[in-house]
Amino acid sequence: MTKTTDQRLRKNIDDSAEPVDLAVSPTAAPEEIKDDRAWYVVHSYSGLENKVKKNLEHRVESMSISHKIFQVIVPTEEQIELKDGQRRVVERRVFPGYILVQMILDDESWYIVRNTPGVTGFVGIGNRPTPLSAAEVDRIMSRIETVEPRVQIDFKVGERVRVTDGPFAEFQGLVDTIDLARGKASVLISIFGRETPVEVDFLQLQKV
Predict the structure, then answer these.
(1) pLDDT digits (tens, 9 = 90+) for 195-205
(2) Which residue, 12, 55, 66, 108, has fewest beta-carbon neighbours within 10 Å?
(3) 3-state secondary structure at position 29
(4) DSSP SS3 for 92
(5) Structure pTM?
(6) Residues contacting residue 165 through CB under 8 Å, at least 6 positions apart
């Protein structure tokens, strides 16, 4: 895993916004654990994360190494999307191509994880796996443990967007304010030659 890839993943962790649900959650917070276990990030082929998770869990059981490899998580969250005019909740991977593994790292556990089918390597500096910090773990877990689904947006205040649905469909304007709690944005749209603020649902906006 290259240093650039490691930095990009950690930036994605730092930039994580609203948290959403995950089917599997840790049984204990990192600070409550007294041994040498830590959370590591494993890279896999994108789209095969769940299969790799099952492969690794099977190896842990069959090779009786549950005392060194404890949890395997594919971070997912629920997002709201608009399709055919209807809102629906879909599950998305938070970090496509990455899996979290809580383990005590030594030669044996490293070998078992590294040689699991679908695993391409650990995230770290050179060939050395680097554990996530407690703050990084907290950010990820707070994001994936929330029960409220979130709307994914790719625009910011001051950027131009197009309204895709509703009474102002096909109008373009600048984002004036963003209300994450309500899932709405105020967009400045030119109506009859005058710039008018219009409140629009996130799902009805597309970045231009």
Answers:
(1) 999 999 888 88
(2) 66
(3) coil
(4) strand
(5) 0.61
(6) 82, 85, 203, 204
